[in-house]
Amino acid sequence: MLDIEDVSISFGEEQAAVSEVSMHIQEKEKMVIIGETGSGKSVLLLGILKLLPDSADVKGHIRFQGESLLDKKKKEMQKVRGTQISYIPQGSGNGLNPLYPVGKQIIESIRRKDKTIGKQDAKARMLRLLSEFGFNDVRKIAESYPFMLSGGMRQRALIAMGIAADASLVLADEPTKGLDTERIAMVIDAFSKLQDKTLLCVTHDLRFAKAVASRITVMYASEQMESCEKEEFFEHPLHPYSQAMLKALPENGLFANMGFAPPKSGEILRKGCHFKERCPYYREKCSQEKPPFVTMGNRKVRCWKYADEA
Amino acid sequence: MLMRLENIEKTYRNQKHPVIQNVNLIVEKGKTTGILGKSGSGKSTIGQIMAGILKPSEGTVFFQDQALSYPFPKEVRQKIQILFQHPEISFNPRMSLLESMKEPYRFRKTLFSMEILLEELEKFGIYEEHLKRDPSSLSGGELQRLALARIMLMQPEFLVLDEPTSMLDVISQAQVILLLEKLQRERNLGYLFISHDYELCRHFCHRIYYLKDGRLKEGGEECNDE
Lengths: 310, 226
Prior knowledge:
The complex is a heterodimer.
Chain A: E1 2-11, E2 18-25, E3 30-34, H1 41-49, E4 56-64, E5 67-68, H2 74-80, E6 85-88, H3 102-113, H4 119-132, H5 138-143, H6 151-164, E7 169-173, H7 181-192, E8 198-203, H8 206-212, E9 215-220, E10 223-229, H9 230-235, H10 240-247, H11 266-270, H12 284-288, E11 293-296, E12 299-302, H13 304-307
Parallel strand pairs in A: 3-8, 3-9, 6-7, 7-8
Antiparallel strand pairs in A: 1-2, 1-4, 4-5, 9-10, 10-12, 11-12
Helix pairs in contact in A: 3-4, 3-6, 4-6, 6-7
Chain B: E1 3-10, E2 20-27, E3 32-36, H1 43-51, E4 58-63, E5 66-67, H2 74-77, E6 80-83, H3 97-108, H4 114-122, H5 128-131, H6 140-152, E7 158-162, H7 170-187, E8 190-195, H8 198-204, E9 207-212, E10 215-216, E11 221-222
Parallel strand pairs in B: 3-8, 3-9, 6-7, 7-8
Antiparallel strand pairs in B: 1-2, 1-4, 4-5, 9-10, 9-11
């Protein structure tokens, strides 16, 4: 469905925002990329959609259903976005147009894909979508402007709009950021309705990832650190960073046995493993050489602890 | 008793019904009181009343058994500080971070010393390198630790923590919470911790209140007894 191979994205001279990321997403798979702010996960999504500014240098291959996206012209890409690949941007409901009622925007994306559909049919489909996403008074919601809805409602409306066009691949950026537990549960519920879609979602919310993902990729400071099945990640994480994240969850004791991240500068990242300053298993080799992304069974990990064994 | 709310009610202007009513709660020295509730339940309203930003419509706020008037008297205001959910709004985007960090010195009319500041900031994992940047180039975790460091320069006795980690990744969250626990032990601080995360509250708080439909569920449940 989506093949990402050795993709690096950089802006000018600076350290790459994404370096040599590879993943192969099968149809109907739910891939969740976990990483903290600045790890490069959002840039990767924008790179797939070709929505980065011209100053971005994207290397590698991105193939969607066998076709190279990087070779597509701007106009061709516009046809792909929204109809074949939909995108749910970050920030509860920022992707909605403040000047139009919510319903109208959803109808617009339905009709963009299916130009033959009649107005009434499109409207009926829009109302059905809204009710599927947990809204009660759907007619009232459809007539509401985004500012009249709460953050959680806007986020759900946005997801509804994202899938309204019936695109087969859905990209989502931090869909639970800043929402409370109950609203997160609603968003999880909304995502669980996407069973027959392929999902690529980035988040730093581990509980959300646990509920939604089938596969997990962990990114840290532009690099892919681990890639595996969801169960493997939550039950037996390999990379020291994955382990640290899970231990830091309040329900797992809220441990943080690592130093504060040094301000990220090119100097630190140029050599060796990107996680070296914070790693409890640090050894000399880690600052000298970048660990390879080695295969271990059906998972991959980038750490000298495992690379030496493999 | 560090801080106490007695029969607090708040009705916003142009609204018929109170957002919160009949709110009674206590915060003890060196302890954390948590308020759990959904978005829009009025948690932040309680926090802002306790921080002196918002005047209650009814009821009394006590600080060390002294009933407070609004605005809080100056000597009390310094002792009560608030940490917000969005660290990026805590800093003036037009000021360098170093300038922002000098503000508490001005407020307290004490002499600024870079050496002492850097020594203090080290405990928060903040270095000179961070201060040279502008607020937008730091991560949420870094900014939140800096915001915490800044309010600590005011030498407070009570902090309102309004969802200080809900925008952070898990590791940054754990680091901020552990930092808060350490500061509490060292300086005997009282906290009001506002959150929607039950697990986090259970870990961090000594007493938890549930806020629903503008009312606190009666009695603080004791937990986290070590």
